[in-house]
Amino acid sequence: MKKRLKPLELFLALGMVATLGACTGAGSEGDEVPDPAAETEVAPEGGEGGEGGEGGEGGEGGEGDEGAASENLNWANTFDDGTVIAEFTSQVVLPNYKIYAGKTKALNDAISAFVIDASEANLEAVKTAWTGARIAWEQTETFAFGPAGSLGFDGVMDSWPVNEADLKKILADSTPITVESVTELQDTERGMHAIEYLLFGETGSKVAGDFTDREKEFLAALGEDLKNNAADLLASWESGIAGQPAYKDVFGTAGDAGNSVYPTTAAGAQEIVTGIIDSLTEVGEEKLKAPFDDQDPVGLESRFSLQTINDLKSNLQSAENGYLGAYPEAGTQASSSISSYVAGQDAALDETLKTQFEEAQVALAAIPLPLEESLTDPAAVGQIEAAIDAIITVKETIESSVVPLI
After folding, report:
1. What residues contact residue 186 under an 8 Å CB cut-off, 6+ apart?
2. Of 335, 365, 357, 362, nearest to 402 (Cα)?
3. Rounded to whole angstroms, how far apart are CA atoms 274 and 87?
4. Of 49, 324, 339, 359, which one has the fewest beta carbons inside 10 Å?
5. Three-state SS annotation for the chain
């Protein structure tokens, strides 16, 4: 799949010197302002595919057309509560990225322990740590804008599908694998799913005795690489990296004079709502409905670990977190959120959405586990269809009723 970047992401990818000046009031009058709602298609960075590999057509390795769900929406452009933007940043984005960075460190530590002592207990500890990191990452889906996309962090940590053919070639080679060499790999040869492939095997039944020294060497380098990228992503929001300003100061000041990326508070709110819609589109239509329609478990993203259901639940939770301005895992809650703003305009609509989110979560939880098996089980058709319908219902309510308020 091709990756699509919004103009503001392209702006970031080319450098944010102008943004730094703008955010400190140095922007000049007449500067052309990028439209956060518009999109541009760019060439992907994915792997080369390969015979028998899972690199997808052309090995493009993207996870979907980011932002495609939000085209042609009827924005009101009247949103004016900057506190919602600032607190979404402080109460949702930063706590989530901090927990994710901590969990990738825990995963890397668990991998190191397993490499030293390849026991079943240590392998289970690595698998548990991978699951924790995976859940934390998938809950960031609603704010996959800014550095996650423009600086390539999403790609290097979460490209899907992995290129199985190339991974096997790497394992069959004798060239030493280091953290530095991993950074030179294609996105589809590194990140969470490459680790998943090595940890769980193609059928999810890999045991400690199955690991070769080469696999452990590769696993160790992948774990360190993932930890480093998670730390850099957090830093890109907290303090800025590579001479760029902290993205919390770019996004959190939407509507401030001189902010050429988010010239209005409405632009910032639209970024959040677009992220919510895109998350719901991805979980309901791309990650669940598409493989269900095809009756093909190979299309399930975390199929090696048999944990695709966690991805779906986490993406749905991410959308709800974005709407409520909360991150339950860290115990954070914004005083002002998209939800509170909607409630001020239409209290019944806010309650409807909260109910719909809850119904979607219940519907997902009702799918028999593992999804990798129930996807093609005739007895599970009703539960899967109900979950798809519930998720799409939330998305459609937001598009038809919330967007016109923002």
Report:
1. 45, 46, 47, 48, 59, 61, 163, 166
2. 357
3. 17
4. 359
5. CCCEECHHHHHHHCCCHHHHHHHCCCCCCCCCCCCCCCCEECCCCCCCCCCCCCCCHHHCCCCCCCCHHHCCCCCCCCCCCHHHHHHHHHHHHHHHHHHHHHHHHHHHHHHHHHHHCCCHHHHHHHHHHHHHHHHHHHCCHHHCCCHHHHCCHHHHHHCCCCCHHHHHHHHHCCCCCCHHHHCCCCHHHCCHHHHHHHHHCCCCCCCHHHCCHHHHHHHHHHHHHHHHHHHHHHHHHHCCCCCCCCHHHHHCCCCCCCCCCCCCHHHHHHHHHHHHHHHHHHHHHHHHHHHHHHCCHHHCCCCCCCCHHHHHHHHHHHHHHHHHCEEHHHCEECCCCHHHHHHHHCHHHHHHHHHHHHHHHHHHHCCCCCHHHHCCCHHHHHHHHHHHHHHHHHHHHHHHHHHHHC
Which conformational region is residue 2 in: left (phi greater than 0), alpha (psi within -120 to 50 degrees), or beta? Answer: beta
Comparing CA positions, the residue from 30, 27, 5 lying closest to residue 16 is 27
Residue 386 has pLDDT above 90, yes or no: yes
Average the pLDDT over 12-21 and give the result: 39
- Computed over every residue of the chain, the mean pLDDT equals 87
Percent of the chain topping pLDDT 90: 82
Split at pLDDT 50, 70, 90, the class of 72 is confident
Q: Which of 108, 107, 99 is nearest to 314 (CA)?
A: 99
Q: Is the Cα torsion angle 213, 215, 218, 221 positive or negative in sign? A: negative
Q: What global pTM score does this model have?
A: 0.85
Tokens of 17: 């010197």
User: Average of pLDDT values for 260-270?
Assistant: 97
Residue-wise pLDDT tens digits, 298-310? 999 999 999 999 9
Contacts of 288 (CB under 8 A, 6+ apart): 312, 384, 387, 388, 391
- In sign, the C-alpha dihedral spanning 56, 61, 64, 68 is negative
pLDDT in tens, 145-204: 999 999 999 999 999 999 999 999 999 999 999 999 999 999 999 999 999 999 999 989
- The answer for residues whose C-beta is within 8 angstroms of residue 205's C-beta and 6 or more apart is none
